Amino acid sequence: MSKEIKIILDELNFSIGRINEQEKRGKILKESQYWYREGLKTARDIVLKIDELGEKNKGTTE
Q1: CA distance to 3, 20, 32, 41, per residue, from 35 (Å)
Q2: Which residue range(s) make up the domain with 18?
Q3: What angle is formed at CA 54 by the lines to CA 52 and CA 59, rounded to 5 degrees?
Q4: Mean pLDDT of 20-31
Q5: How many structural domains are present in the chain?
């Protein structure tokens, strides 16, 4: 996993965690916050999938 991908994942996980903390403290999330978190989770999944595909391709092209 490249340094750039690790940084992106760290930022996504940090933002997701920040929203989760608010929810754990009993704050009811606004609808926009909920969907923002869901979008961040989807972005994280996409980055992980792209990295996985990149690693597979790297092995076949060398």
Answers
A1: 28, 12, 5, 10
A2: 3-59
A3: 100
A4: 95
A5: 1
